[in-house]
Write a structure and sequence with these properties.
Number of helices of chain B: 0
Order of helices and strands of chain B: EEEEEEEEEEE
Number of strands of chain A: 12
Distance between the termini of chain B: 33 Å
Shape of chain B: globular
Strand content of chain A: over 45%
Oligomer: heterodimer
Radius of gyration of chain A: 14 Å
């Protein structure tokens, strides 16, 4: 089956620190990979995605590279801000023609000033 | 509307009761998804609609769960004979088309079964 494993949180950082949230996956087909973010009191939002091996998704200073050889899609940001505090979900989709996402458990990020 | 709207935001019910949860997707979005998120877990797929039809209901846990989308817009998730294990946040998402992988999520309905 399909599954996503994320590092457990919470991840606690000071402002301007470097962020890595690890994500690995198993999939029966050739998946597209996603990071979704949930800010406090808001719905899930797509942060970035990658659809094939070696693609790099990026948005708002966050990056993640689709690594087929290690089945990974780690999320990184060079300098986090307090406003980045949220729960981050790694997800994959292997459905043909529509997006049935399989999510990880989520990683809470807390950034202090 | 501006985003995906889900009502109610919170629902408390007693074991054995029937509940309906509503989702109003972004106008013009033909694809609609329901997910369930239990405490400490990521969302789990329940059902996908393309237009009025349920194209994939493989995630519905049992026959107590049912969903409709009669006019291809608003959808209702219906749960019969609720159980305490049904307590979770029920999320709705929509997208412009079947192949569009960018889903827009609502804020969810927190269902508590006492």
């Amino acid at each position: 089956g399909n599954s996503v494993t994320q590092m457990e949180g919470p991840v606690t950082l000071s402002e301007e620190a470097f962020l890595t949230i690890n994500c690995t996956y198993t999939a029966t087909g050739y998946p597209s990979l996603f990071w979704y973010v949930q800010y406090p009191g808001e719905g899930l939002q797509l942060l970035l995605k990658a659809t094939k091996a070696d693609d790099k998704g990026s948005n708002k200073g966050f990056e993640a590279t689709y690594r087929k050889e290690t089945t990974s899609f780690h999320l990184e940001k060079g300098s986090v801000q307090v406003s980045d505090s949220a729960v981050y979900f790694c997800a994959l989709s292997v459905s043909s023609g529509y997006s049935t996402l399989t999510f990880g458990k989520g990683t809470m990020l807390l950034v202090s000033p | 509307g501006a985003g995906v709207s889900q009502t109610p935001s919170n629902k408390v019910t007693e074991k054995g009761k029937y509940v309906e949860l509503r989702c109003d997707p972004i106008s013009g979005h033909t694809a609609l998804y329901w997910y369930r998120q239990s405490l400490g877990q990521g969302p789990e797929f329940l059902i996908y609609f393309q237009g009025t039809g349920a194209a994939d209901d493989s995630g519905l846990p049992n026959d107590r769960f049912f969903a409709v989308r009669p006019e291809g817009s608003v959808s209702t998730l219906k749960i019969q004979r609720t159980e305490r294990g049904d307590s979770a946040v029920y999320l709705c998402a929509s997208s412009e088309g079947a192949t569009n992988e960018k889903l827009f999520f609502g804020s969810g309905t927190q269902l508590s079964v006492l």
